[in-house]
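Researcher: Here's a chain I'd like modeled. Treat it as a single chain, no partners, no ligands.
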Amino acid sequence: MNKQELRARMKAYRLSLDSAERKILDRAIADRLIELVSPYDTVLCYVSSEIEVDTRYVLSELFKDSSKKILAPKCVKGTNIMHFYPITGFDDLEEGSFSIYEPKDGISMQTDFSDNSCCIVPALCYDSKGYRVGFGKGFYDRFLAEFSGKKIGICYSGCIVDKIEHDDTDIKADIIITDKGVSYT
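Model: Modeled as a single isolated chain. Structure tokens:
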């Protein structure tokens, strides 16, 4: 199955989950993720849309730890490039590109990340080797090509597939967290 077909299949699967079931799956992933990122000084985390694994609970928990630096992505309009910006709460966000919440204008972009950083990577699906199918714009692959920290993928267990075709520009996750467990790639 090619990436376009996988995207359609995984979007349909996610939309088929009722809200109660999604809450249970999201919380199982969140609990594992919060524990796994606890040793990191800097956590790069997207603000989830309705079709993605929910990160809002994770972010609200991370905001409570003042020793931790939290960064969220912002897309550069008219390009397939994104940068990360520090946030201290949901008040630092506004609706941006693709109707996704992003850091507000006026916050300084972060370009240097500590060796003790991790990036939470969204995807529609992953395979067991850590390769992913995203939404097809390449934002994360471009960013992750230069990011030296841990790459942590989060995904519903129903969105794990046997194999995803990939090329040299596809960046794999080091760790995948699902509602059923944690795997290292």
